[in-house]
Amino acid sequence: MTRAVCPGSFDPVTNGHLDIIRRAAAIFDELVVATGTNPSKSRLFDPDERLEMLREVCADLPNVTVSGFTGLIVDFCREIGAQAIVKGLRGGNDYEYELPMAQMNSHLTGVETVFLTTHASWGYVSSSLVKEVASLGGDVSALVPDTVHGRLVERVAGRR
Ligand code: PNS
């Protein structure tokens, strides 16, 4: 049985994330989508809201579960018996950012990181850009799942 973790901030989950989740779920027997904390980023949605959105959009994927984690991702992987971490790569910047983390995680426990290349349709999509555009009144409805779009519009309107 192969079990992998797809970690991220998912603030909020985008169609790009969902594409990676779906494709990883087709490769591994079990996929755990895990929301962690990246202290270098500011948050729009609290951890429970991010988990709820992930559960909604992964509901049709029978081998996918959603979980939060605190502390090191490698400790979470060990706790749940996951052999691999899955990440999406949109381009060179992502690679530069992800490579040392993959190497550090390998150094710490030997866990493997598997990179999936983002589908070209989602190459420019990030949670940060989606939040920025939505907060300035732009239309991001094609870039996030419908349920996420509703919450996003409501949240940014409340902050104007
Ligand atoms: O979506 P993001 O912001 O790129 O997600 C980053 C995240 C949360 C996956 C990453 O920061 C992480 O793994 N944090 C857990 C703490 C940890 O293990 N840090 C050392 C990484 S080598």
Q: Would you write up a description of this structure?
A:
There is one protein chain. The chain has 160 residues and is of the alpha/beta class. It has one domain: 3-Layer(aba) Sandwich (Rossmann fold). It has six helices and five strands. It has a five-stranded parallel beta sheet with strand order 3-2-1-4-5, sandwiched between helices. Strand 1, helix 1 and strand 2 form a beta-alpha-beta unit. The longest helix is centred in the middle third of the chain and has 18 residues. The protein is globular. The relative contact order is 0.21. The model has no long low-confidence stretch (mean pLDDT 96). The chain binds 4'-phosphopantetheine. The site of 4'-phosphopantetheine has 11 residues, from strand 1 and helix 4.
How helix-rich are the residues, as a percent range? 40-55%
Mean pLDDT: 96
Q: pLDDT under 50 segments (min length 5)?
A: none
Remind me, CATH topology? Rossmann fold
Number of helices: 6
Q: Radius of gyration in whole Å, from Cα?
A: 15 Å
User: What compounds sit in this structure?
Assistant: 4'-phosphopantetheine
Class of secondary structure makeup = alpha/beta
Main pleated-sheet profile: 5 strands, parallel
| CATH-level-2 architecture | 3-Layer(aba) Sandwich
Shape: globular
GO molecular function: ATP binding; pantetheine-phosphate adenylyltransferase activity
Keywords: ATP-binding, Coenzyme A biosynthesis, Cytoplasm, Magnesium, Nucleotide-binding, Nucleotidyltransferase, Transferase
Subcellular location: Cytoplasm
Function: Reversibly transfers an adenylyl group from ATP to 4'-phosphopantetheine, yielding dephospho-CoA (dPCoA) and pyrophosphate.
